[in-house]
Target: FAD-binding oxidoreductase
Amino acid sequence: MVVVGAGIVGASVAYHAARAGAAVTLVDAGRPGAGVTADSFAWVGASGVRKGPAAGLRAAATAEYHRLGAELPGLPVTWSGSLSWNRQDSAPDAGPGQTIVDAATVATLEPTLRQPPEWAVWAPGDGAVDSVGVTGRLVAGARTHGARVHLDTPVTAVRRDTAGRIAGVETAAGPLSGATVVLAAGVATAALGAPLGVRVPVEPSPCPLFRFRAPAGLVRTVVNTEDFDLRQVAADRLIAAADLPERTLAAVRSTFHGAGSVELLSTRLGVRPMPADGEPIVGPVAEVPGLYLAVMHSAVTLAAAVGRLVARELVDGTVESALSGCRPDRF
Model:
């Protein structure tokens, strides 16, 4: 098979399929994880998941990353837990894997908070990943299991034979053959599908990500508030997903003791793929035998689970019920 896209989803599909014994070629226009994967806040959580076609995938997300970490020792994942709160007067109900905690407990979990909220939602099983680092490890793992990897190689078209079945892809460096093509190219998936008469309802959605210089230990968990999603990624670095950098910087300084020296280092505006209904698009395209789609929001969260399940469908021929609500034919 040919997997188009070496973001975290495509890399996961390639790794799991190669590990299962498939002959895999992974191709990308750039470097592993260098696209929107690099612009992800990369919060991984199974807690609080209750509904939606991908609820089962999201509920399994942390377990799948623990499984992947056992297969690829040293996978860059930090299991810090997450704390969420807002300015509502009353606390919400706790979902699966969540606990409502009081201000004293919040202060223990995040001791530099200036004013711990009266309540917060504590999800001890949540974590975060180095999304580019994980993608690199998945690509290396795919290579270890025999996958061929073509980087800096733009795919220009999907090839079909005279019977209309998938035959591989055309690239700037020449054709790559494969009886199956997995399109895991994010927002570019729609453009690659269009000449085949395949409509992939996915649009670019901006995702601002800010990096700050900050004191060590300022933030200990993944913090989710109305102002930002925030976490410490190195001894002197924070990242935040929020709307405006200046407002976010002011909010960080006002939220934590010792944050007066926090300074903005960079602002990135990624373009994440957002399906029309917000749910993953994963599965075969009936009209084009051999074509398979794997495009989604929350790609970092879902990558470990989706990669394993897609590989099972393509290599073993199973039909995975966890993907039943994510099929392309729902549109």
The longest helix spans residues 299-316.
